[in-house]
């Protein structure tokens, strides 16, 4: 059994509207300028002991940096007075983008295209139903 499935079913039975959100690009999309500009920037020791000989240092996936010059998420360093990029946790970026997705669903009834998987030939994208049943991709000929 899937732990979230019972919780989803219980919430639906209590009258809540349940949305299943796809996590595609939510942790790499910039919240401020609307471009895919969040990038890894911290070098860290490789946590895999068997790979340390090949690559002793890797880029950390946990902390991201806004690397866009026009991004309004830039901050001024209070010591030097220079502009410096804003640093954000990957999980926080994903949560804030989830909120953006839910707000967009409430206002417009659809998800922004930059959070959707690219269309594949022969598949039709489907919206997750509210009743908790699985989403199906229909084949078009």
Q: Can you walk through the features of this model?
A:
This is Transposase. With 141 residues, this protein is an alpha+beta fold. It has a domain at 20-115. The chain contains two helices and nine strands; from the N terminus they run αβββββββαββ. The chain has helices at residues 3-13, 90-108; strands spanning 38-40, 43-45, 57-59, 63-66, 75-76, 83-84, 87-89, 123-124, 138-139. A three-stranded antiparallel β-sheet has the order 1-4-7. A two-stranded antiparallel sheet has the order 2-3. A two-stranded antiparallel ribbon has the order 5-6. It is extended and about 50 Å long. The two termini are 35 Å apart.
Q: What's the helix-strand series?
A: HEEEEEEEHEE
Distance between the termini: 35 Å
Query: How many beta-strand elements?
Result: 9
Largest sheet: 3 strands, antiparallel
Q: Mean of the pLDDT scores?
A: 76
Uncertain stretches: 135-141
- Helix/strand structural class: alpha+beta
Number of helices: 2
As laid out across the biggest beta sheet, the strand order is 1-4-7
As a whole number of angstroms, the C-alpha radius of gyration is: 20 Å
Q: Helicity level, as a percent range?
A: 10-25%
Overall morphology? extended
Beta fraction of the residues? 15-25%
For this entry, give a set of tags.
alpha+beta; disordered C terminus; 9 strands; 2 helices; 141 residues; two-stranded antiparallel sheet
């Amino acid at each position: 059994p899937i732990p979230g499935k019972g919780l989803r079913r219980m919430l639906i039975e209590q009258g809540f509207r349940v949305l299943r959100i796809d996590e595609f690009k939510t942790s790499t999309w910039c919240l401020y300028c609307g471009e895919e500009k969040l990038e890894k920037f911290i070098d860290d020791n490789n946590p895999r002991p068997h790979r340390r000989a090949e690559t002793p240092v890797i880029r950390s996936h946990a902390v991201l940096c806004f690397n866009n010059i026009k991004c309004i998420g830039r901050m001024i360093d209070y010591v030097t007075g220079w502009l410096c990029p804003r640093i954000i946790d990957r999980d926080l970026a994903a949560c804030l983008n989830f909120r953006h997705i839910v707000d967009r669903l409430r206002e417009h009834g659809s998800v922004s295209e930059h959070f959707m998987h690219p269309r594949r030939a022969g598949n039709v994208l489907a919206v997750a139903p509210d009743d908790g049943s699985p989403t199906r991709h229909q084949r078009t000929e």
